[in-house]
Amino acid sequence: xxxxxxxxxxxxxxxxxxxxxxxxxxxxxxxxxxxxxxxxxxxxxxxxxxxxxxxxxxxxxxxxxxxxxxxxxxxxxxxxxxxxxxxxxxxxxxxxxxxxxxxxxxxxxxxxxxxxxxxxxxxxxxxxxxxxxxxxxxxxxxxxxxxxxxxxxxxxxxxxxxxxxxxxxxxxxxxxxxxxxxxxxxxxxxxxxxxxxxxxxxxxxxxxxxxxxxxxxxxxxxxxxxxxx
Length: 229
Known about the structure:
Layout lengths: L20 E6 L3 H12 L4 E7 L2 H7 L7 E4 L8 H11 L4 E6 L4 H10 L3 E4 L4 H12 L7 H14 L11 H11 L4 H8 L3 H15 L4 H11 L3
Parallel strand pairs: 1-2, 1-3, 3-4, 4-5
Helix pairs in contact: 3-4, 4-10, 7-9, 7-10, 8-9
């Protein structure tokens, strides 16, 4: 994993702050995948440890040369990027995952972050900014494209409730909400709870009514703001 030195002090501006940043790429579009590989491999201080066309391929091969950080698309054939995040984080808890996608909607942004993504970038991010974001994530930051950051801030402002709000969630509703915060969708939440998807839908309707929200991402955001789970 990445090795960092002590912070620079005084006039010592030449001390290196990090060793090689190893990056794995998960992207189904060949042109984009090859451009990313060329950019990372051709930049001093960065190395591409693997380039995968699908999440399934990455899950099968990534352990052979585990990177510091994964750069992953969301809209992949087969298993999507968000579902893959949960598996990667379960297998390799210290692995950093940075999303690189065309999607900028609230649902996917929150699902990705709750599933364990370290940052969220749009594909129009300039190459220099992409490299800087990889370094920022490895250094402990959470890089986001400006548009994504604005959406996150706006959503949190819109759903902020009165202080000490009591939503009277039942234990079952609270557990389901916690699963959503962890990145689960209706189907996987139903499996975890040992109930049908219809039962999950029933509890979701109650949760939405009590929290006064209309989407899963709004419910997750409100749960995080109010520490409901």
